[in-house]
Design a protein that fits this description.
2 domains; 23% strand; 30% helix; Chloramphenicol Acetyltransferase; alpha+beta
Length: 416
């Protein structure tokens, strides 16, 4: 059954005070320029609070949103070509809806990422000059879902959560850390002609499903490694990749594989950057798995760690220079997209991010979810609310998902 979403109102929320003239031109960094041209989504779910009615909630959120936009002023501006944002205070789209055919618990007990797309303000691949939008969804049971979309060309996931938590804090009249907008100074913009930020984006024939791995399962996967103490993400990503390869490519044909992990650069800088640094501060490792050990799953985790170690201050310096890294990106695009030389599988982890901190005055979220993303062979890891288990959002081609979700070894590990 599809979510029935009825739009109640649409408006534009503008900053409560004008952006100073010297901040009106927000320059995108090199890492912003090469970020995927999509919106990043998130949906925060809150249980019913009898003390608040929908009008009170709506007015409170709109007022505090207007206030927080003065601090995150680029979000209320408009993209001007691919290089900068005109911080003209035009504001952000704000939509309110009501959900009539689903209760909050129905969604949380059986979340379907493709259906959650109805709870956010934009289609993820329909990127425009608007950087940010909010959709406030009221359920008939009294539950609330705040759906938000942030252009990936502006910022990464940590920046997104820092904004949401700052918005929640200003709603409750609490102090919050101010964002730092230094990305274009640290990674000056470049001429990126010949590189397409839309590469890898897919829409048709892609399905996303959530697989939940409880804390004990994750620890059991970690325990299978001898003389190596992998992180939860290292162990689980190696396991998921091994299941994908075994069930999709079990025809005996020799192939080249690439396993990609996103890495936060903030702590790789010299000196390390504050967590409040706003923008895109991530790059990717590409691990070419060695397939001759007979224990590909366990060997991969160690290889991934070795590749991530290569992202150090010297690596960051090369990215800041830009030319060599841009050529690497173009070459990777040619190998993966054009020539199809590599079967690439991508991992992004939001584990240890402050997902569940946004309290607007009626408690913290009872669940934080994502919609389906427009990339194939992508896994996004998110902490379960208890902090020990991991939810894996797996996006595959429809025919691949049929095989993947039927794998007995996988099914033995996921929460039923």
């Amino acid at each position: 059954m599809k979510l029935e979403v009825e739009i109640i109102s649409k408006e534009i929320i503008k900053p409560s005070s004008p952006t100073p003239s010297h901040l009106r031109h927000y320059q995108l960094s090199f890492l912003d320029q090469i970020a995927p041209m999509v919106y990043n989504p998130i949906v925060l779910f809150y249980s019913h609070n009898d003390a608040l009615n929908t009008a009170t909630i709506s007015n409170t959120l709109k007022k505090s949103l207007s206030k927080i936009l003065t601090h995150f002023y680029p979000l209320a501006g408009r993209m001007n070509n691919k290089n900068f944002i005109d911080c003209n205070d035009e504001g952000i789209p704000y939509i309110e809806t009501k959900i009539t055919n689903y209760n909050l618990k129905d969604i949380i007990q059986n979340p379907i990422p493709n259906e959650l797309n109805r709870l956010i303000p934009f289609q993820l691949d329909d990127i425009t000059n608007i950087a940010f939008g909010i959709q406030l969804n009221f359920f008939s049971c009294g539950g609330i879902a705040i759906g938000a979309c942030l252009s990936h060309q502006i910022a990464d996931g940590l920046s997104f959560f820092n904004f949401l938590n700052s918005w929640a804090n200003i709603t409750r009249k609490l102090i919050f850390p101010k964002p730092i907008f230094d990305s274009s100074k640290l990674f000056p913009p470049k001429n990126i002609s010949g590189f397409d930020p839309r590469s890898g984006i897919a829409k048709e024939n892609i399905v996303c499903k959530i697989f939940v791995f409880n804390a004990d399962v994750v620890e059991n996967l970690r325990a299978k490694y001898i003389n190596f103490n992998p992180t939860r993400v290292e162990a689980l990503s190696a396991f998921i990749w091994s299941r994908y390869v075994d069930v999709i490519y079990n025809d005996g044909v020799q192939r080249n594989y690439g396993v990609v992990h996103a890495v936060n650069l903030r702590q790789k800088m010299e000196p390390p950057l504050p967590l409040e640094s706003f923008g895109n501060y991530l790059r990717f490792t590409i691990t070419i798995p060695k397939m001759n050990s007979g224990e590909e799953c366990y060997g991969l985790a160690k290889q991934v760690r070795d590749e991530i170690k290569k992202i150090d201050k010297e690596y960051v310096k090369k990215v800041q220079e830009g030319k060599e890294h841009l050529e690497f990106l173009k070459e990777s695009f040619d190998r993966v997209i054009v020539k199809e030389e590599l079967v690439v599988f991508n991992f992004t982890s939001l584990c240890r991010f402050p997902l569940y901190d946004a309290d607007f005055g009626w408690g913290k979220p009872i669940w934080v979810g994502s919609t389906a993303l427009n990339f194939k062979n992508l896994v996004v890891f998110v902490d379960c609310k208890d902090g020990g288990g991991i939810e894996a959002y797996v996006s595959l081609k429809v025919e691949d998902m049929v095989k993947f979700e039927a794998d007995l070894e996988l099914l033995a590990c996921v929460n039923k």
